[in-house]
């Protein structure tokens, strides 16, 4: 999540990992879901 100041300049980034260490509701479950690797495409057809 981008963090901006009053001048709308980027001053930082809050990651899902940052939120999960602060016990934000649902953050741990979301982090687990987005961190799960997808199955590799072995069809040989390319992207």
Automatic annotation (TrEMBL):
Residues 24-47 are annotated as: Disordered. This is CBS domain-containing protein.
